Amino acid sequence: MAEVSLPHFMRAFRTSTGEAPLRFIMQRRVTRATRLLLETSTPLMKIAHDCGFADRSHMTRCFRRIAGNTPARIRRERS
Q: How many other C-beta atoms can be found within 10 angstroms of the C-beta atom of residue 15?
């Protein structure tokens, strides 16, 4: 799509954003999921699916790694 090799794209992406492409995408997914957790009462499974995670456990692992907290705890603390 970008008409460059994968290694070239990854280097250029990291140079322009300061992050690897996958890390960039995961941070955006976690940000969107956090907003949904705080603003809606949508079930965690639906939020995980809507934000592009494979399942709820995948979302939880990414949250722990990126946000330092779990989705359930974020929602509980909101209440």
A: 8
